[in-house]
Amino acid sequence: MATILLSSVGSLFGPFGQIAGTLAGSAIDHALFGPQDRHGPRLKELAVTGSSYGTPIARHYGTMRSGGSIVWAADLTEHREREGGGKGQPKTVRYSYSASFAVALSSRPIDRIGRIWAGGSLLRGKAGDLKAACQLRVHTGHGDQPCDPLMEAALGSQCPAFRGLAYAVFEDLDLTDFGNRIPPLSFEIFAVDGSRMVELLLEDCGAGSARGVRLDELRGFAHEAGSVREVLQLVDRLWPLSVSTGEDGCAVRLASSGEEPVCALPPAVRWDGGDFGQLDGTSISRPTSGGGQLSALRYYDAARDFQPGLQYAGTVDESSRTLQFPGVFDAGDALSLSRRANVRAKVTGERLKWRCSDLDPQLSPGAIVTAPGHSGLFQLLIREWRDGGVELELARHRPVEPVTAPPVADPGSAWAPVDRLPSQTVLRVFETPWNGVGNPAARVVYAAPCAPAGRWPGCTLYTVEDGAMVPLDIAAQERALCGQLVAPLAPSRALRFEPEASLIVQLIDHEASLISTDLRGIGRNENLLALGGEVLQFAQAIPLGSGQWQLLGLLRGRGGTEREAATGHPTGSAATMLDDRLVSLTSATLDPGSIRFAAIGPADDEAAFATLENAGASLRPLSPVHPRMQLMEDGALLLSWTRRARGQWGWPDHVDLPLVEESETYEVVFGPADAPLRRWTTSQPSLALPAGELASLTATLPGGLFHVRQIGTYDRSAPLELGHPA
Questions:
Q1: Which residue of 352, 429, 628, 721 pairs with 394 in a disulfide if CB–CB is 3.0 to 4.6 A?
Q2: Sign of the CA dihedral 562, 568, 574, 575?
Q3: CB-CB contact of 709 with 716 (8 Å)
C-alpha cells in the first residue's frame, strides 16, 4: 500500500520523483509486512493427468502421488459385441471403446508404481491388480530403456525411448466405466528412499554434495518448480541445514547439536560509509511481535492417500504463516516438525551484521560462531567484501535438539475408494422342472456364475464343443447366490411343510445375504433353492457368520422332485437360489446337445467350467401319484393312479390339470421297472387285468410288482410303484 501511495505522490515531481517514491514505499512495506513470498516449490491439491504443452514433469523422490502428463495417445478403438439372438430372436449389439496412451510420470528414474486412481475409483490396487481391462507397461526411466513396442509400432523410427523419463503405457484401456473418455489419472510412484532427497537432488543437478544427509521424517518429495537453492531454503525451514564451501565445492549437512566447530568473530571495526556500523561496526535487528512465524505445516498425508493435510504448530494470528511443503509425512511427524520449526523461528529471526577488517578462512557461510559482546551462537549466512573490509550477516543459531518420539496427531478422515482384490468365477449350470411359465416345449436351463467376496466385473458364457469354447453371446453382470451344504440333509417324504426341519449352507460370497419369508411367501414360490437335483423352499434364513446360514422351515420336493428329497443330500451338495440373478439359457441360444459350459471374465486367470446338472428335468413329465389296486369280484385286477402335469406346482381346487403333453399316455409294466416281464399302454389313468392274465403273471414271476410311467412328448417319467397283487 505504501509503495502505491508514495509512487503516486512522487510522480508529481517527475519520473525521478516516482522512482524515489516507489523505493521509499517498498522499504516501508517490507518493514511492515515482510518480503513477498516467492513462487518456488509449493504444495498443490491432488493433480491428475493432463496434456498441456510446457507443463513441467516433476522429479520424484521417495513415495509420491502424481498426475503426470500424456505424451502420446492413439485414436479410440471401437469394439462391437453381439448379445442374444438366435432362432428368430433379435440380437443386441453393444459398443464399447478402448484407448491406448502413454503418461510421463517423473523426469528422473523411479523404482515402480503402486496404485492408480481414475477419477474417484481405483484403476490399479495395492496388489497390482487392474480393475479395468487393459495392458499396463511401466518404463522406469533408466538410461538404457528401449522404446515401447506399441508406440514403436505406431510411430516407427520417430518413436522416442524417453530415456531418463519414467512413463507408463496403457494399451486398450476399456473406457466403459469412464464415460468412453480417458479418465483423469493419478499414480502412486515409488522412487529411492525419500529421506535421501537432498543428497539425490544435489547429485542430479551437480550443485554440490550432501553425503549422509538424511531427512528421516520425509517419505516423499516432488520437485516440480523452483531452483535447487529454493528447494534447500524450503527444506531448511524444517531441517536446519549447514552449508560450507571448500576446494571440493559446496557441502550441505544437517545442522545438529555439537557437530559444528565454533569459532569467534574478529573484532568489529567502524566504517564511514554504508547503512550501519558507523559507531561500532555492528548492527542487530529483532523480529517484530508475531514476526511472521510458522504456525502451520501443509503437506501430503500418507494416511489420507496423499491428500493435503494440515498440522498447527501454535497460535494462529494475522501475522502467522503456513508453510506449504510438497512432501509426504505421517501426521505425527508433520506435527513434530512444525512445532520445532515454530520454536526455531522465534530465535533465528534475530539478525546481526558485523564489519571486520580481515577474515578467518574458516568463516565461510554456514559456520557457527560467537560474537564478542553478544551471548549465544550465530550462524554465518552472507559474507561480502567491501572497500573498507568484510561485511558479514549472521542469524541467531539454536542448536538442534535431539528428536524424540513424534507426538500423537490425527491426520483427519478422508474418503478412500475400496481396494477389492479380484475374485475368480465359479460356475454351476443346471436344469430345473418347468414352472408353468412360458413355452412348455422349451428347456429351463440356468447358468449360475458366482464369485467369492471381492471385485467381480462379471463374465461371458460359453459352451464347450470338441474342446473349444464357443461364445453364447451372453454376459453375466450379477453374482448368483451359490453355496454348498455344510452338513448332510436327511431324507424327506416331501408331503407337508416341515417347520422344524433345517439345513446349513455355506455361501461362496460371504458378503451375500438371504431373506426370510412366511407361509404366504412360500405359497407365492418365494425362497426357492435348487439343492442338488431337488427344489425346495425355506421360511427363515438365520445368519451364522462367515457366510454360513441356517435355513429353517422347509418345504421339500417342489416341482416333482420328491424322489431326490427321499434320498437326502450329502455334505458339499451344491445349493443355488432360484431368483432373477440366474442367467437363463433358453432353447434359442442353447443347442440340444450342449452339456459342457464355461465362463470367464476380465478378472479371471482361467475359465471356470461346469457340466449340465439334471439334464432333461424341464421336459420330463412328472410321475403319477396316489397308486391304487383293487381286486374285483370276478378275479380281475383294477390298477389306477392320479395324473400330474409339468408346471403345476400347486393343486388348484375345482379344476382339472392341463394336459401339457401332446397326449395322455401311460405305460404299465409288471416286473422290474427297467426290465419288465410284460408291459401295457393306456390313455386312461387306470388299467384292468383279467383274472386269467393276472394268474399267469403271478405264476411266472411270484412277488413281481406293477409300475406305471407317464409317457410325455419328449421323455418318460420316473416309475410309480403300484404294488403286488395279494
A1: 352
A2: positive
A3: yes
Distance CA 310, CA 412 (A): 9
pLDDT digits (tens, 9 = 90+) for 603-623: 888 999 999 999 999 999 999
Residue type for position 265 = L
- Residue keyed to cell 510446457: 54
The residue among 630, 638, 646, 623 whose CA lies nearest residue 720 is 623
Give the pLDDT score at 290: 52
3-class secondary-structure state, position 677: coil
Q: 3-state class of 412 per DSSP?
A: coil
Half-sphere exposure of 414 (CA within 13 A, CB side): 17
- From the CB of residue 294, how many other CB atoms can be counted at a distance below 10 Å? 24
- pLDDT given for residue 256 in this prediction: 62
The confidence score (pLDDT) of residue 38 equals 43
d(CA 64, CA 57): 13
3-state helix/strand/coil string of 76-99 = CEEEEEEEEEECCEEEEEEEEEEE
Model's pTM, two decimal places? 0.73
Note the pLDDT tens digit of each residue in 95-105.
889 999 999 99
Angle between helical axes of 228-238 and 331-348 (0-180°, round to 10): 100
How many helices (H) does the chain have, and how many strands (E)?
A: 9, 41
Cβ contact 271:389 at 8 Å: yes
The residues of the chain scoring below 70 in pLDDT are 1-48, 51, 83-91, 245-246, 256-261, 273-279, 287-292, 315-319, 348, 400-406, 726
Residues 724 and 297: their CA atoms lie apart, in Å, by 95
Residues 6+ away with beta carbon under 8 Å from 236? none
Q: How many CB atoms lie within 10 A of CB 208?
A: 20
CATH of domain 625-723: 2.60.40.10
What is the pLDDT at residue 287? 67
Query: Backbone dihedral region of 616: left (phi > 0), alpha (psi from -120 to 50 degrees) or beta?
Result: left
Q: Tell me, what's the pLDDT at 35?
A: 47
The helix (run of H) or strand (run of E) holding residue 692 is: helix 691-700
The span from the CA of 76 to the CA of 17, in Å, is 63
∠235-240-241 over CA atoms, to 5°?
80
Q: Cell triple for residue 24? A: 521509499
Q: Residue 543: which of 508, 580, 507 has the closest Cα?
A: 507
